[in-house]
Structures are given as structure tokens and as C-alpha cells.
Amino acid sequence: MKGLDIRARMLLAAVLPVVLASTLLAAVFLLSRFDDMQASYEQRTRAVARQLALASEYGLFSANLTQLQGIVLGGLREPDVRWVAVLDGKGRLLVSAGDSAGSGELGFSNAELQGFDAVRRLDMLAQPVFASGIKLDELYEDAKTHANGAPAQLGQVVMRFSRQSLDKRKHDMLLLGAFVSFLGL
């Protein structure tokens, strides 16, 4: 700073706080927006998996593979969905559609499972399918529940979602934030 004359020092003293404040605000707002985008993506993927699990209940109960294949193909039409599969109550694959490479990463469980493949940038979700709690006939009620009163698991829906569109939106938002910050300066 010793080599700068008084005008350059005054300009630096006037501009530096504005640059720091603008950069800090842009970073805070962009990080907040990235978190919102990530949360929205995760909510949407869970909602799609739950919806397909509910839709496949009857197909699993009745062992209707044609209906299950239609549900799986319908799920594949959702944005970012790369692979969909329905497993029976013992974890055996009944139907699937899409790119099945690396499809065995999530195990069979009676709880919702979630995983991430960092190499392929894919989120994996497994949603269990349970028999609905509608009481139709007392004679068959015990067959659909376990000893603890919980409904029997009919199977599981497993899905893989690509993060490519989310990453592109984040990249576009970053460029827009940088452009607006540059214009502000």
C-alpha cells in the first residue's frame, strides 16, 4: 500500500467494503438457495417413491406383473428417474425398467432406505409396500398382519434418481449470482 498514491488509497478504502459486502451477501443467498433446491429435490423424490409404493400395493397383493410393469414404466417417465424396480416380500426382483447398472446397492428392508452413488451422481431410494389397513373380512385379517399388529410387508419399490438437472440448476444459479454481483460492483 505504500506505493499507492492518496487517490488510489481512497478508492480502495471506498470500494473494498462494498466488494466484501456484495460477495458475502451473494454467497449467503446462493448457499441458502442451494439448500432450498436440495430440499425440494429430496421431497419430490420421496413423494414419487411413496406414490409408486402405494400404486403397486394391489399389483403385489394380486401378483399382477402386468400392472406392476405399467406402474414401473409410468414411474420412469417422471423427471430425473433413471431406474425403477418392484421387489416381492422376499426381496426378489419382480419387474424393473430403466438403466439397471448398479441396482443392487440397497438391501431389502421394512423401512425407507436412502443411498447415494457419488460416481454416477445418483440417489437411490427404497420404499416398503405394506398391506393397507382396510378391514375387509375378519377371517383373513390375521394373514395380513404380524403378531405385533403391524401390517405385513408385500414388497418394496426401489428407485434411482439422477442429480444432473439439480446440479445444472445450481450451476446456472451460481452463474446468475456471479453476474448480478458483478453488475452491482
- Name the helix and strand elements from N-terminus to C-terminus, one letter apiece: HHHEEEEEH
The assigned structural class equals: alpha+beta
| Overall pLDDT level | 85
Cα shape: rod-shaped
Rg estimate, integer Å: 25 Å
Q: Low-confidence runs (pLDDT<50, min 5 residues)?
A: none
Give the quaternary arrangement of the chains.
single chain
In spatial order, strands of the major sheet run 2-1-5-4-3
Determine the strand fraction and express it as a percent band: 15-25%
Write down how many β-strands occur, each being a DSSP E stretch of 2 or more residues. Answer: 5
Proportion of residues in helical segments: 40-55%
Q: Biggest β-sheet: count, sense, barrel?
A: 5 strands, antiparallel
Topology:
Blueprint: H1 6-55, H2 57-62, H3 65-76, E1 81-88, E2 93-98, E3 113-117, E4 122-130, E5 153-162, H4 164-184
Antiparallel strand pairs: 1-2, 1-5, 3-4, 4-5
Helix pairs in contact: 1-4
Write a brief caption for the model.
The chain is of the alpha+beta class and 185 residues long. Helix content is 48%, strand content 21%. Helix 1 (6-55) packs antiparallel against helix 4.
What does this structure look like?
The longest helix has 50 residues, at 6-55. Strand 1 (81-88) and strand 2 (93-98) form a beta hairpin. It contains 4 helices and 5 strands. 19% of the residues are buried. With 185 residues, the protein is α+β, with helices and mostly antiparallel strands. Helix 1 runs antiparallel to helix 4 (164-184). The two termini are 22 Å apart. Strands 2-1-5-4-3 form a 5-stranded antiparallel beta sheet.
